[in-house]
Fold Phosphoseryl-tRNA kinase.
Amino acid sequence: MERSGCGAVLLCVLCGLPAAGKSTLGRTLRQQLPLRHGWDCALLAYDDLIPEEGSGRGEPPHEEPPSVSAWKRRRREVLLCLERLLRALRSGTAPPGPAAAPPSWGRFVSCCAEQGLLPGRSGGPRSRPLCIILDDNFYYRSMRYEVFQMAREYSLGFCQLFLQCPLELCLHRNRLRGSPVPEGTICRMAQRVEVPEPEKNPWEQHSLILSSSACSPEEQCDAGLMETVLVQIFNLLDTALENPVKQNTENTEQKEADRAICAASAVHQADQTCRRIISQAMKEAKAKNVLPSEMKSLAEELNKIKAEFLEGLRQGRHVESESGQQNPTSDPAARLLSSFQLEASHVVNKYILK
């Protein structure tokens, strides 16, 4: 059946906690979209594209800054691979070889080739709409926003499918897996997960929040319920494909959304850096024989300062230098962290010199 938007591409972010049923839903869509909707469909699962030992199964490792950097780098590589694919789809030529690609390109190419996704290997130019499903936890909104930015860069359709599942049910399903995710990881994600909010964020307007009961991997779900869910999803995909994200540099509302996302990311990164500074300060105090009875007070004082500094970053307040002057041209986050490190040193010295 001919559909509007022939040859167009849609990026669909499939997100939710581990064991919420994302992989099951992704496989169902990959099977049903070509059969019932006349679309091509590719499923790109981050668990397949990122080595498990470096992926954190969707979450950065804790208390190991080098591992966190590796985790972020590998996620960035997936997006770079996706961008190379989009350029190749646009030009209709085969993507560049491994010599000009990140290390993860081999896995990405293999995954795409298995699904007949690569230009020049699929038997001619693509004429039907293509839905590329990205299967990952995407528990931070900023992670999903990166995909939206790519859709905007290439004027593609964009939508989000969020599987909502109670934490206890996710933990139960996870225990039945052959290779379960650490339960602590799932619990931390559940505390941090940011559900799509279309009413607050215009860029999330094409979003659908689904109950995992309709696409559960272990439980037998009602066929009628699953059919209803598929119709809802197909309608969302149609709408998103027919309304691709437009490039508009004069869109003030979108610029404000960009700034909000960047600010949230900056606060998160600053929080991680402050934690490392506090950890190092506590080690220094212990090495200088600060009494155990005072270590707790020291930690509380440092964490109080951290909270005040992060709130200043959220509110966009300038941090003054020792001379009492502000430097409006320097980076607020870097200035804040430098000031926090100095303040932390003063606090530690106060305890050391007691």
About this structure: DSSP finds twelve helices and five strands in the chain. Confidence is low (pLDDT under 50) at residues 1-6, 61-66, 318-330. The longest strand covers residues 9-16. Residues 9-242 form a domain with the Rossmann fold fold (CATH 3.40.50.300).
